[in-house]
């Protein structure tokens, strides 16, 4: 049985390992020390967001990171599913669907009015999961400017 529970500082290294695997799958540059520091920051400051882990018999097999924001367009406090990752051998068993439902429940409890996420265009299965979970494509592009 898989337990979906709030992450603790003791989960940092397990989540970091999954985060590394996630970035490797998608070809994103991985900055280990920066990611470790940011995970520690998130775990120490609940104003930033929430992190849940999928724990299967003591092994962390996935996680969902929810980051908080604020938007006039989206009627106040909003949140972003920054990362949802399930290790390859554990996919297709409802872990992502359950994590999204837990995140939505937490958003309701925390006064979050809108929940956002992004997904790569080629990930048809993930896009279908998100649609079935109630997410709508606004036919917009996510654009980013790095502030260094």
Q: In a nutshell, what does this entry contain?
A:
The chain has 148 residues and is α+β, with helices and mostly antiparallel strands. The chain has helices at residues 12-26, 32-44, 95-110, 124-132; strands at 2-6, 49-56, 59-71, 76-86, 114-117. Strands 1-2-3-4-5 form a five-stranded mixed sheet, sandwiched between helices.
* Distance between the ends: 43 Å
Structural class of the helices, strands and pairings? Answer: alpha+beta
**Could you say how many structural domains there are in total?**
1
Helix/strand order:
EHHEEEHEH
Named CATH topology: Aminopeptidase
Q: Helix count?
A: 4
| Strand residues, percent | 25-35%
Reconstruct the topology from this structure.
Blueprint: E1 2-6, H1 12-26, H2 32-44, E2 49-56, E3 59-71, E4 76-86, H3 95-110, E5 114-117, H4 124-132
Parallel strand pairs: 4-5
Antiparallel strand pairs: 1-2, 2-3, 3-4
Helix pairs in contact: 1-2
Short descriptors:
5-stranded mixed β-sheet, Aminopeptidase, 4 helices, 36% helix
